[in-house]
Amino acid sequence: MIARRRTDRRMWPAALAVALLIALMPGQSAAAIRFDLHLGAPPVLVPIPASSVRYAPSLHANYFFYAGRYFVFDDDLWYTAATYDGPWLVIAPEAVPVPILAVPIAYYRVLPPPWVHWRRDRPPRWDSAYHQFRDQRHEDGARAFPDAGHRGHEHGRRG
């Protein structure tokens, strides 16, 4: 059972600004934005093929594990924690590890509405805030995210 508390989408920019201010205050090590994800036990984590990232397919949440940390993508924000059950801290887009951003949409359990029509075998179309991913290239030389910044409709394309 997962209990989540969400803030109004119009409030997240203000909340992020407050969190950044708190992070910059002397004596503060991290900014906590309230995000509740309570799990009764550690979830089963399954490896994502061709990736060092694991995900929790049994949860109704975009829940990932990578390099000893847990990550959740919820309501257009990324959160991270040192333990499976938090406490969860919001992180800036540029702080999200590239392997997490490279996870194909098929491994996200809760899709934001714009993602529903995107190809499930590819990562989400992260916007310009995710420059560390957008500028990566695959081994074959193709850009990791060829449609960076594209927000239009994909007529005639199915994923």
Compact description:
The protein has about 160 residues and is α+β, with helices and mostly antiparallel strands.
**Helical amount among residues, as a percent range?**
10-25%
Mean of residue pLDDT? 75
- Low-confidence parts lasting 5 or more residues at pLDDT below 50? 15-30, 137-159
Number of contiguous helices: 3
Secondary-structure-derived class: alpha+beta
Defining key terms:
14% strand, single chain, alpha+beta, 159 residues, disordered C terminus, globular, 6-stranded antiparallel beta sheet
Q: Mind explaining what this structure looks like?
A:
With about 160 residues, the chain is an alpha+beta fold. The protein has a domain at about 10-110. It is built from 3 helices and 6 strands. The protein has a 6-stranded antiparallel beta sheet with strand order 1-2-3-4-5-6, with helices on one face. β4 and β5 (about 75-80) form a beta hairpin. The longest helix is centred in the N-terminal third of the chain and has 13 residues, at about 10-25. It starts with 11 loop residues before the first helix and ends in a 25-residue tail after the last helix. Residues about 15-30 and about 135-159 have low confidence and may be disordered.
Secondary structure elements and pairings:
Layout: H1 12-24, E1 46-47, E2 54-55, E3 62-66, E4 69-74, E5 77-81, E6 89-91, H2 98-101, H3 131-134
Antiparallel strand pairs: 1-2, 2-3, 3-4, 4-5, 5-6
